Amino acid sequence: xxxxxKTAMLLALCATTLxxxxxxxxxxxxxxxxxxxxxxxxxxxxxxxxxxxxxxxVEWTREPHDPSFFKATGCxxxxxxxxxxxxxxxxxxxxxxHHDGFCLWDTKTTDLKVTHSPLKIDVLAALxxxxxxxxxxxxxxxxxGDWPMDRKKATTVExxxxxxxxxxxxxxxxxxxxxxxxxxxxxxxxxxxxxxxxWVRQFQPNCFSGYNHGEAGGRxxxxxxxxxxPIGKATAIGGQMENEKNFAYTVAEFTYPxxxxxxxxxxxxxxxxxxxxxxxxxxxxxKDYLGAVKYGNIFSLxxxxxxxxxxxxxxxxxxHEVGRMIRGEIKISIPLPGKxxxxxxxxxxxxxxxxxxxxxxxxxxxxxxxxxxxxxxxxLDTPKTVTRALIDEAGFARIQKFDIQAQLGGAWxxxxxxxxxxxxxxxxxxxxxxxxxxxxxxxxxxxxxxxxEFQLFE
Length: 458
Hints:
six-stranded antiparallel β-sheet
């Protein structure tokens, strides 16, 4: 549809009205401990990654593009917020600008912005309105440094001025911001973390700053691809801000994508249509939600909108299921604990049998290179009556034929069979089986067998 000058003026007026109608910012600073508790009480939220990389199909879109590359045909911020509300989420963490410099708000600092794209909508202003409608708080992601359009320009004072100007817009025109997730992947953007934190506090004293790596700073620890745990726990940090244990943070956040590891496409952004069925199971998300509550963390689950600006159907369904778990509407079955062994293991460290029982489908067991069959065995702590199992191939689809056996009276008995497995295949036994040792036999595979999870349930 052709956009007339009159329509464009109305859209700009609408965006201005949305921004000016944002809730009032509290300029009275609260004690860090009080403010940290308020942030921790949000528990978990939705990380919205939507930008050039949605359309390039890769994580980092390095090639120069003009605003027309952002080809979104719609923007359903109400759907995002409703899905968050149904999931029991307390906030949305929104990507305002990735490393390519494309701004998802109507900035005056550059023409590389969403209001100059075919969408012509100030997405942040629309999201602010939807957040207020559904009672959802707002946090922001911001790339500290950008790739210059000519890819040769060095960091300059002007970049610091640009960073400061853009942050001022974000912090003065769109209402209260709970915290800013600063991505340090392309450097400091001309302003170090201590200076950045001071600049943020000037406009919103209760907005926490956090940095995913680089110089330690801010009041919130960011754990990119991390997990629940107390501040300073090395195994929870996730390999980015490794100096967490040496800095006095007030609260910790962890984040990862709802898309499990997969082949091809992006991970943090909406990926290829062939990945429509890939999604971490609700049980895993609920487990990490419980971990966040236990340790006073917040859990930012990345969910990327598609080309039409909507969340995938499987994402909405999964989030709704987690919400029902949180509200106690669904009884949760916990996987039975035990010890895993395998017929063979991939030679490279990190693919041991135990990886298929750690409750994290981002890790996986792999059989030896060149194999097309293998078995994975679970020995429970004590004999249990098992009624079902779950197989998750961690984003792969290699199994062609399998069976599950139980060791009964010194002999193996088949209790279930199947062909393909894929993502989160739930298998119900024809009758309950009481045993201590169970084995998944992968009889045929089209590549080296690998599993994110093999779980048994009472």
